[in-house]
Amino acid sequence: MVKIIEYQNKNVIMTAAEIAQFEVQPTPEKDPVALQIEGDCPRCKHTMSLTHYLIAFRGVAPTSPESFQQMLEAASLVPTSLLPTEFSVQCSCTEKHPGQKGKGQVGCGAFWRMRCE
Ligand SMILES: [Zn+2]
Ligand SMILES: [Zn+2]
Fold first, then answer.
1. How many domains does the chain have?
2. Per the domain annotation, does 3 fall within a domain?
3. Of 25, 59, 63, 84, whose CB is crowded by the most CB atoms within 10 A?
4. Are strands 110-116 and 85-90 parallel, antiparallel or unpaired?
5. What is this structure's pTM?
6. How far is the CA of 8 from the centre of ligand 2 (A)?
């Protein structure tokens, strides 16, 4: 049983081992528009998964990488080589951490940088 730590907005520097246990899956495999990320949060150790979109448009909230890519294709905006990329990931575990502000806030507040080649 993992002790539930308090929510805190905190920049985490990950160790190589913590980075290595994350699985990053570019989606779709060819000309990916998103990364499926799964692993244990380096701060609270809860398993989390999230979809990181490599491009964003104002007012567009994609429901899935597939539908997002279809939308891009329909608009003749087919992205190529969005990788390598470096980006921020925020803990999005599904546990309740004391101190979370408002509903919709998830995770323990930790965030960190990741890189995908
Ligand atoms: Zn957590
Ligand atoms: Zn966390």
1. 1
2. no
3. 25
4. antiparallel
5. 0.83
6. 9
Measured in Å, residue 92 CA sits from the centre of ligand 2 at 7
What are the tens digits of pLDDT across the range 69-100? 999 989 888 777 888 999 999 999 999 999 99
Which of 105, 113, 115 has its CA nearest to residue 8? 105
Q: Is residue 42 part of a domain?
A: yes
Q: How far is the CA of 116 from the centre of ligand 1 (A)?
A: 23
Angle 93-29-69 (CA atoms, 0-180°, nearest 5)?
A: 80
44 Cα–ligand 1 center, Å: 5
Longest CA–CA separation in the chain, Å: 50
In tens, the pLDDT along 7-44 reads 999 999 999 999 999 999 999 988 899 999 999 999 99
